[in-house]
Amino acid sequence: MNNTLRSVLAVSVIALVTALLRFLPFVLFRGKKETPAVITRLGQVLPYAVICMLVVFCLKDVSFSVWPHGLPELISCAMVTALHFWKHNTLLSIIAGTVCYMILIQSVFI
């Protein structure tokens, strides 16, 4: 099998699974007046769990024992947290934190 066919098959399978996962809740809960309690609870809990996993993933390789001792990461995390509590805008917080981090590692902590 050549690489082009393999790539087309991989993208097709990924697209099919993604579409199936998007449509599955509508198929499962078709005709029900209210959302089941389990789904409502997951909607409340999962966003926080995903954010915690992302923070752990982003900070797992930070070395606090060598220069700059994780300062760019800590400053950027503090900025994201402060902006989110101030503006309650997730997209703004993430973009500003990313820009802050990139500025710090590109020009301040060289």
Fold topology:
Layout (H helix, E strand, L loop, with lengths): L2 H26 L8 H23 L11 H17 L2 H19 L2
Structural overview:
With 110 residues, the protein is mostly helical. It has helices at 3-28, 37-59, 71-87, 90-108. The protein is flat.
Tell me the domain tally: 2
- Give the structural class: mainly alpha
Rounded mean pLDDT score:
90
The residue ranges in which pLDDT falls below 50 over 5 or more consecutive positions are none
Helix run count: 4
> What does the radius of gyration come to?
21 Å
Roughly what percent helix?
A: over 70%
Summarize, please.
α3 runs antiparallel to α4 (90-108). It contains four helices and no strands.
Brief descriptors of the model:
single chain, 110 residues, mainly alpha, 2 domains, 4 helices
